[in-house]
């Protein structure tokens, strides 16, 4: 069975949209509570998470529980961050949620409108609260010439990774933790994942927009299935030389996260997409790249308009 | 007063989004009827239009009127097209709506899901029915070099045009009437508006996605203010040579629609955007171009995420 580009988008933008599919949306979040902080709704809480919050030890000082609305207490960023940390640490020690086995010791930022931080929280716990997570992805490619087609540098994830082992990835990608900007994140990950020098990346990586979508986690993402994970990914493109002509730089594994880097033609990448070999959100980044670069267009992709708008979903929570 | 990029987006994406602003959306369409055809909602009908449809001569054979829902009758594309044509012709003769003074004799297509035509209708009447209109826009630019910044070819609309006289435009743009594909539309308009040869455009224009938004017409758009006009614009970029080096091609006025073509640097274009000199949906195309080309990014545009998702709105009606 091969997957269409829309099938791939459906995998990552999985929560129905309230504007276009109001009934399906209402059904999907029925039973969820709104996660409120400082008068802003910042996420949805599934029943399994709501139930874990409605215990006296937690709800007393750290949470205010009302029907359909659960509020993180605290008047300052520091207080809210501390209350969230006590909650997730308690769950971690009690082994309450499997997803917390992947504890990262990395702090993600949750925002009020206009990019004001509301609080910080452990990265691995964000899907329990349905809050927006941010990352940065870069596609490194060798442009087409008169004799060679465009080729993309595609890494294969290490077999030992806890999430999506052996799947294909974007050349460089990472989550934006600990207050990183997207560009700093890309520069750092480019060194760690692909051995690309910071100087080269700073001079050549080009920002080219974002993708955003509302992911509902699959089992192969690790942890409980069905957790809600809206995401914004900041995108970068970077041109490199043709290694067949002795040009470079050539991405190479640096840490144990990546097994190998392959230079694939556009047709080879299309084949791997259709076979479902890409990590789902990396497939979405590649599809957006193909649309921006004129490889997918209205003449060859009948679902272009749905695909492109789904990849740029306006999320209902405040964004960075 | 200067306009921010988000101000410019607010001008063209003006109907509140039901997913992110449900109350403002409900207020905006309060009093509107849904325009239904073949079991699909394809537009919103403002009270002034609904009232014009609720007259015996029209509602008898051509329209089915129910509270909140008005259906175009007809079992086939031909019947529905004929019923719509009789309606709009009658209004035109009776001088019922000012917007029909701009009658074009050009047929726009209204779609069911998956791009199946439901019916065809006169272009100038589409904003009366709140249905999606399609166009194609191309940005022609001279890439930056080590010594010169990127420059865009920007036409100034003729002073005699009925809509947006003297405003700045995208290099080539047009509505997709009479069953045109976006690429055919661009090739034709490039010749008519900018004297660019079809051969050159076919070889060099590169598709690069779409923008979509829900426009609410201003008075300077011509016709009644407040009419609803959701739009999808197919985008193309095209690189040309530097005219200062004797390269080309050089866009030049061909018909009476364009006063002149100017080659503006990115900074000059930014200034013209901020001064509100661009036609609103052309400003949106330029902003999308700036984001895709790394001129606007997360580091220099704090509203990047809202701007980019607003420019790729998933519309609630079936699209081409």
TrEMBL record, chains A, B:
Protein name from the UniProt record: Nudix hydrolase domain-containing protein
PROSITE patterns on file: NUDIX
Top-level taxonomic group: Eukaryota
GO molecular function term, any single one: 8-oxo-dGDP phosphatase activity
Pfam families recorded: DUF4743, NUDIX
CDD domains the record matches: NUDIX_Tnr3_like (cd03676)
InterPro entries: DUF4743, NUDIX_hydrolase-like_dom_sf, NUDIX_hydrolase_dom
Domain Nudix hydrolase stretches: 135-288
Organism: Drechslerella stenobrocha 248
Gene3D superfamilies in the cross-refs: Nucleoside Triphosphate Pyrophosphohydrolase
């Amino acid at each position: 069975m091969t997957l269409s580009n829309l099938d791939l988008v459906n995998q990552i933008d999985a929560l129905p949209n309230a504007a276009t599919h109001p009934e399906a949306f209402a059904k999907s979040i029925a039973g969820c509570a709104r996660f409120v902080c400082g008068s802003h709704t910042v996420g949805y809480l599934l029943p399994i998470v709501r139930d874990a919050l409605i215990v006296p030890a937690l709800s007393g000082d750290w949470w205010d529980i009302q029907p359909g609305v659960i509020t993180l207490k605290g008047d300052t960023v520091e207080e809210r961050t501390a209350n969230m940390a006590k909650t997730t640490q308690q769950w971690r020690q009690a082994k309450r949620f499997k997803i917390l086995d992947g504890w990262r010791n990395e702090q993600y930022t949750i925002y009020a409108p206009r990019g004001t931080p509301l609080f910080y929280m452990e990265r691995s716990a964000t899907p329990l609260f349905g809050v927006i997570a941010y990352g940065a992805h870069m596609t490194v490619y060798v442009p087409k010439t008169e004799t060679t087609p465009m080729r993309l540098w595609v890494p294969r994830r290490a077999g030992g990774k806890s999430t999506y082992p052996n799947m294909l990835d974007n050349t460089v990608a990472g989550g934006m933790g600990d207050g990183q900007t997207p560009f700093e994140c890309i520069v750092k990950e480019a060194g760690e994942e692909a051995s690309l020098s910071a100087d080269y990346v700073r001079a050549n990586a080009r920002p080219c927009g974002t993708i955003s979508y509302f992911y509902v986690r699959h089992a192969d993402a690790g942890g409980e299935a069905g957790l809600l994970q809206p995401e914004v990914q900041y995108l970068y493109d970077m041109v490199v030389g043709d290694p067949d002509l002795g040009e470079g730089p050539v991405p190479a594994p640096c840490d144990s996260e990546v097994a190998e880097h392959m230079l694939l033609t556009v047709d080879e990448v299309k084949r791997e997409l259709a076979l479902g070999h890409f990590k789902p959100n990396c497939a979405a980044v590649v599809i957006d790249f193909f649309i921006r670069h004129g490889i997918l267009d209205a003449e060859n992709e009948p679902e272009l308009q749905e695909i492109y708008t789904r990849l740029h979903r306006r999320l209902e929570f405040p964004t960075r």
